[in-house]
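Retro notes (design track)

What went well: tokenization of the new backbones is finally stable.
What didn't: we kept losing track of which sequence belonged to which structure.
Fix going forward: every design gets posted as structure first, then sequence, in one message. First example under the new rule, 294 residues:
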């Protein structure tokens, strides 16, 4: 299968490329830069020039493919609406090129979108199309494309980690370095789900090859790690670990203040049963302990 991959030179995409090639697929990777093109060629992929801001480049790439994995995203946490609008437009453009065929479109969302009510584990079978939260727009766009007859499935991500980057925990490290204190909100017992980067990359392959149209899959290895435990990275930085009130967190953490206190546990039981996915990589805390802080 020839697979068009957006985000091909990013953290997750660059791990998906070798996973696809090892499984015998060809990869057509989206990039806007010469450096990105060089890295794709070195990895054994073909290069497709374009960007999320250029819908025609997305249509063109998808039109040359037997399937699409869309994992590019502009993480503009200061303006979620802008990021989600761009992502929705990208999904719509990719869908344009796949209409009238059974070629798969795998899009990327967030595991917390499967939380039906506070305190519950997010599950794959929950999706509220009427929820107005900006982060829902990706899955709403996917559902709209599916309504047009496109073969869409969703991979929902937790905190994806290795020893270089760990999602939101990386942001906590950056703030801790800057402010000389490692913080959590309240009692710090709110939870974040997590999975190792290589396990996540393998799941994308399984979803591409074995998915059921309209299904959602959770790339979750650890259901919920207390944020207070994550904040213990302060010991590695040799700085205090402290609790903040929700109001203090808003100013301390900036645009991500409300996320630091969010409870976002998630299950992958259905995903494991349906696809035979068995994550085996190191846990989040293990990777944090191996991260070089200096």
């Amino acid at each position: 299968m020839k697979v068009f991959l957006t985000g091909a030179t990013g953290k997750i995409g660059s791990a998906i490329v070798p996973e696809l090639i090892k499984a015998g697929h060809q990869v057509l990777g989206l990039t806007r830069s010469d450096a990105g093109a060089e890295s794709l060629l070195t990895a054994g992929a073909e290069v497709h020039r374009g960007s999320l801001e250029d819908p025609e480049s997305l249509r063109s790439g998808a039109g040359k493919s037997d399937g699409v994995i869309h994992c590019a995203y502009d993480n503009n946490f200061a303006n979620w609406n802008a990021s989600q609008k761009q992502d929705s437009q990208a999904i719509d453009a990719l869908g344009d090129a796949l209409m009238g065929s059974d070629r798969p479109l795998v899009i990327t969302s967030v595991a917390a979108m499967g939380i039906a009510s506070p305190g519950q584990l997010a599950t794959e079978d929950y999706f509220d199309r009427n929820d107005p939260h900006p982060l829902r727009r990706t899955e709403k766009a996917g559902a709209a494309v599916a309504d047009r007859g496109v073969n869409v499935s969703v991979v929902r991500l937790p905190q994806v980690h290795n020893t270089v980057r760990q999602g939101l925990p990386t942001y906590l490290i950056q703030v801790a370095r800057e402010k000389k204190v490692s913080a959590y909100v309240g009692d710090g017992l709110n939870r974040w789900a997590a999975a190792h980067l290589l396990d996540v990359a393998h799941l994308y392959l399984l979803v591409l090859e074995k998915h059921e149209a309209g299904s959602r899959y959770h790339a979750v290895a650890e259901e919920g790690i207390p944020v207070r435990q994550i904040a213990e990275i302060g010991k590695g930085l040799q700085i205090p670990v402290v609790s903040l009130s929700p109001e203090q967190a808003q100013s301390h953490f900036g645009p991500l203040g409300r996320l630091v206190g969010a409870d976002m546990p998630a299950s992958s039981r259905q995903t494991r049963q349906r696809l035979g996915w068995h994550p085996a990589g190191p846990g989040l805390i293990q990777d944090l302990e191996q991260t070089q802080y200096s």
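Added context from the reviewer: The first strand starts at residue 2 and ends at 6.
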